[in-house]
Amino acid sequence: xxxxxxxxxxxxxxxxxxxxxxxxxxxxxxxxxxxxxxxxxxxxxxxxxxxxxxxxxxxxxxxxxxxxxxxxxxxxxxxxxxxxxxxxxxxxxxxxxxxxxxxxxxxxxxxxxxx
Amino acid sequence: xxxxxxxxxxxxxxxxxxxxxxxxxxxxxxxxxxxxxxxxxxxxxxxxxxxxxxxxxxxxxxxxxxxxxxxxxxxxxxxxxxxxxxxxxxxxxxxxxxxxxxxxxxxxxxxxxxxx
Lengths: 115, 116
Description:
Chain A is built from no helices and eleven strands. With 115 residues, chain A is mainly beta. The A-B interface holds A 31, 33, 35, 40-45, 48, 50, 55-56, 58, 89, 91, 93, 95, 99-109, 111 and B 4, 33, 35, 37, 42-47, 50, 52, 91, 93, 95, 98, 100-109.
């Protein structure tokens, strides 16, 4: 059973450029989450999908951020006009469609560095 | 106010000893779930253990157990017989409410260092 995968693992970009990250959840999971983690902090929630529907967005998700999950499988997170404050680890998690516990399983993350 | 508080920035333990990592939480919702995750230097968050607010018994998973004290709003992680591979960041997290698809709220984490 493969886990959550994320690509790329590392991304270095210049301020003002656009970047896109991809997340492939565990295959039978219909719930998908994006989190951001800065140095020395715990992850902070960005957005949540159930199948292809984006059901919740955090205030952290500014207008420069957009997330999609077009067919209810993989998801992409795009950051436009990156700023140095966007430098962080971006984590994706998925959880199964059944069960109350709703344990979220995380991918290895994409580490973004904005120069 | 912090929803999840982890007061120990760093903990040190020797191999084969037990260690307790503290976590207190704050919620007015009667239904919630508490999770512990391990984050090695590679970055991936690894799920360790779960405790539901209505669970009568403390959760256990192998060498991990959760000391759940509901009245004190604490959910401390106990790792027995520490191993070198346990060295990592440990995060306590909470999901408020009974509905699935709710975001996790994380604490700031505790760095555990296990020495031989």
